[in-house]
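Study this pair:
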Amino acid sequence: MISMRKILLLGFVVLMSAACPDRLTAQEDRYQFLEEKAIVFNILTEVRDAEGTPLWNVESQTYTISGRPVNLSLNGDTLKVIVHLTPYIKEDGTFLLLAQGEVWVTHQDGKMDFHTTMESLPVKHGESVFFFPLGIQEKNDSADESSTDEDDTPSEKVTLYTIEIEIQVFRYKELVKGDS
């Protein structure tokens, strides 16, 4: 005689096996949705001295979807740079890239400066965009000399650096298509 427990167990197994194909279909649908909507960022960050000599660089690749930001953070003893990159897929398949930068600088006297930037840029698939959160330092012979403040007192000598962030934005499905 079959016990009630065995009947319930058998019913559960049959029910679960019937539900699995739907479960796989749902997972496949989610994967297909992500494959369709995923955006890939290739990011090269470089720090250069006043002469333009690269001092440090790092390459990274990260994934997001339209409207979700990718955040970068560079932290030093007296400098903190935060960059938020938010891509939006436009109807024509290109991107609108919203680039926000925050720069925090602490001076020797303890005072802190804060600067912020925001740019929105139309970007094509694979196109390089350059972002300079500290601005672009042009070569200037006087940058190496001591300067004076408004009241003619000598000011601290400042070593100038440039941070260059190269950003390439791709649709994941286009990258996969190109690899095949």
Q: What stands out?
A: Residues 47 and 53 are 8 Å apart (CA to CA). Residues 141-148 have pLDDT under 50 and may be disordered. The helical segments are 4-37, 172-179. The first helix runs from residue 4 to 37.
